């Protein structure tokens, strides 16, 4: 695919992609690579500075910060990524139905999207967490519930655009089935649009969800999550500000990675953006 | 133009109705019975089924769903959101002042965002690809990737604790606005200045700029003209910013103990105080819809092409 070929040529883009893949793999294999049990409390080591045994030091309960960061990838990145994929899938299906079949179905789906998009994400998340109770799964549920509408709209727009292409019209004329037109001729084209939107939503989702965890609405203690680690570190901010560094750097670098990736995908999609006058970076 | 505005307002009305219905529907999905929460909050020692039934009757919770909804809608329109389960006080007495505080924070942040996005955008566009431009973009890029609560905590640590210049939290005087507004604005400035910058750079390549230069206008005058043409982008972006900030201050309000809707709603979640959550969701969603409508109308006024596109 052209998108991937262009992306590989973009050094920053491919570096970000590799970095993010590496982070996710570290999250998946956290039990193997983490040096300690992230939940093991070790009171004699409270607030210990970094040492060879505990590379990033220990927190207020003497737990190993590095292991908590590694396990934290799961809640802070992997689960969010899963929620993103689910909402992209729902959005793609809905967007395709709306854009391809048009008519009354289209109107209904789009009106539902209008309603979903009239709630700010934070507000609906708070409503859902308020009803179903505190927990990461409820926050993710709220995000899926809200975000699919956003993806459905974007995908509908690109389906409308591609459906007008000559060869799609030709495929319809010669009587190819809807299924094969969608799967073989339109879906591959929309993939790149989906990738751009998904990667840029990923960074805002990471920031928002970690913010909700910071407020104590997310994952339940003692599980590790970066936003909650920052919240725990804030309690002792005046005496041990260094505890904020590790989770802070973790979040910032992953978000920067996704931002770079989405910018590079955008350029890979429309190489004319690379022209000096229009550069977006 | 009148037709566009009328149409836009007509679309908004059913949307508001749908929003209110969804808000009401959401609360009804709660696995916990409201009557039970109320009785717990009133510290009733023994909660029997009979007691729950009686409370339901008192609150009209035994009526059919759709009737409950219309009751709720009509009283909500009169700003009567019922009583808080926990504080036993009218919800509006708690939510009203909080909304005003959140709105103050939103407006102050929007003003700061407008001023600094335009200023930095212009500086970067004029010095495109020079040192200033590169540094500004790098610094703001990092800020947009920084969680606002982390930025808030660092600011409190630096300005309030180490330098002892500003209050750590609360809403007392003008100086208590500085940190929350700064932290709210930084993330948005980092996004919006790029739009101003690229709009200005696009304008730099237009014929009228070349003509202006050829006729010997000063760089200052030319920049002013470009800025005027780029401001349309600015206005449309900032209209969109108000509803976004309004719906997103939850985290920052909690970091700075700002007595707004965000702080109120988190407390309500932890107490399962449904009327407050309901009122919060409804008020912010309605404000969000209305500000989006205003921003669409303003955009259409500035850009005639949008008007004809239904």
UniProtKB/TrEMBL annotation, chain A:
It is found in: Cell membrane. Pfam families: BPD_transp_1, OppC_N. The chain crosses the membrane at residues 12-34, 77-100, 112-133, 205-222, 243-261. GO terms for biological process: transmembrane transport. Its main location: membrane. PROSITE patterns: ABC_TM1. The keyword Electron transport does not apply. The lineage of its organism: Bacteria, Bacillati, Bacillota, Bacilli, Bacillales. Belongs to the binding-protein-dependent transport system permease family. It comes from Ureibacillus sinduriensis BLB-1 = JCM 15800. This is Peptide ABC transporter permease.
TrEMBL record, chain B:
The chain crosses the membrane at residues 105-126, 138-159, 174-193, 233-257, 277-298. It is found in: Cell membrane. Signal peptide: none annotated. One of its GO terms (cellular component) is plasma membrane. InterPro entries: BPD_transp_1_N, CntB, MetI-like, MetI-like_sf. It is a multi-pass membrane protein. Keywords: Cell membrane, Membrane, Transmembrane, Transmembrane helix, Transport. It comes from the Bacteria. Residues 99-295 form the ABC transmembrane type-1 domain. PROSITE patterns: ABC_TM1 (PS50928). Its main location: membrane. Belongs to the binding-protein-dependent transport system permease family. This is Nickel transporter permease NikB.
